[in-house]
Amino acid sequence: MDRRNFLRNSLLAGSGALLARRSLAANSASSEGQVPSAIATAQTDKARFPSGFVWGMASAAYQVEGAWNVDGKGESNWDRFSHTMGKIKGGATADVACDQYHRYKEDIAILKRLSQKSYRFSTSWARVQPSGTGAVNQKGIDYYSRVVDALLEAGIRPFCTIYHWDLPQALEDRGGWPNRDLASYFADFAGILAKNLGDRITVWAPFNMPWTFTYYGYGVGAFPPGKASFEQFLKAAHTVNLAQGEAFRAIKAASSKATVGSALGMAPAYPKTDSEVDRAATARYHAMNNTYFLNPAMHGEYPKAFVDETPYEAMGYKPGDDKIMKVPLDWLGFHYYTRRVVSQAVGNAVAGNAGHFGTETEGEGGSASRDPLTQIHVEMPTEGSLTEAGLEIWPRGIYDLVTQISREYNHPIIEISENGCCYLDGPDETGRVPDIRRIAFHHEILAELARAIADGAKVRAYHAWSLVDNFEWSDGYTQRYGMTYVDFRSQKRTVKDSGLWYGRVAAANRLDV
Ligand code: FCB
Hints:
Elements: H1 3-13, H2 17-27, H3 41-44, E1 54-58, H4 61-64, H5 77-82, H6 100-113, E2 118-122, H7 125-128, H8 138-153, E3 157-163, H9 169-172, H10 182-197, E4 203-207, H11 210-219, H12 230-254, E5 259-260, E6 264-266, E7 269-271, H13 276-290, H14 295-299, H15 312-315, H16 321-325, E8 332-336, E9 340-344, E10 376-379, H17 396-408, E11 413-419, H18 436-454, E12 458-465, E13 484-487, E14 492-495, H19 497-508
Helix pairs in contact: 1-2, 2-18, 6-8, 10-12, 11-12, 17-18
The structure holds beta-D-fucopyranose.
């Protein structure tokens, strides 16, 4: 353990917010010029957010709802995947998850108690259209309608992510996202939602982290449907870009109040060396991972993600697709969790051994590339401390990312659609959950976000991932990201100390609470 980590851990061994806050100072003493947190504790306490800044929390249908086959819901690709032996840690499923389908009122009451002003939730396509096309399951619509009403009654803005990775299995059986027909099926689904809920929802994001579900699902096979072909990934990603454009129009046609943005997964990327090739590889990473689903919407064209020409043929690109994809978004939403260090790949190009998030490091081949067309080698550095999911904590990254996207897209309105950390803390003997490392994590990152705002970025919202501990995809229940602890046997909820702290931050609109 290096000196900084030792200091941080020693401080965190104590308890209480004061110690958690002091650890900020420990974390800012870094080596090699990259300063994890560029401002000292005294200054983080002075961090200010614009009046009306929107504090919120996020979740996703498959991770929290449960009720996987209730009230006419169809099977989704994640139901199929989690019901297949060997796919999810511990053999877990989300059949029940947090049972939010039946407990949404209790969860919304927690949001209200914690002074939240936005809840980012997602809709299960198979709950609304059990086979992905055609007939609507009214009970599915009614459920989301009840959720929206309960949120509004609690004074909370409903932020609807239409698709957070769970595809009706019937559509997976028809080829899944590489099948171009899914673009118009998705637009139909989006239109149904906007027609039924668009009188009350004003904030829509068509897709959560499109690079992740297309790449992990079709490029490397870590997510359903478990395919591993770079060409399938290229096709899936292109369908999703078309779907984003078509859905944008369908939503706007059905609801005059609608604003449409995004919920992209992004990581600021830093070149491993100052060499020209590493800097070029870093730019390709940014294009492939951060803006591959943004540039087509804003400008109608793909960013330069490939060493050679964009492989239009392999993508299934047709003349006129630029016009379908181009839908200048009303605001840009993206998540920040950690950073990446990127270099030019050497050695054999292999579709690398990537798992979700933290394991996206060297892969098998030492410095092999993810694929032959981008030739990027991606590492997750370990200079900062790691969360219990193995992600490096790098608060400075949110400043770099937000200011970079602001510059590149002409100072758009930005929402941070997710940020969070996995720590496994549970209730102590008094029943409290003193997860002070989570407090320190958000505190540091929010201070850096405030600095980006002070430097001119138009950030209007921040969503903590997540309201409750939940089903963490292929990691099952082995990771906990919630600000509320869930006992998955009894479904008892206990707001963690981080939730209480974040509630005070939301109420005061500042960090020194
Ligand atoms: C994001 C996902 C979310 C959750 C968090 C930890 O990538 O959008 O569903 O898994 O990571």
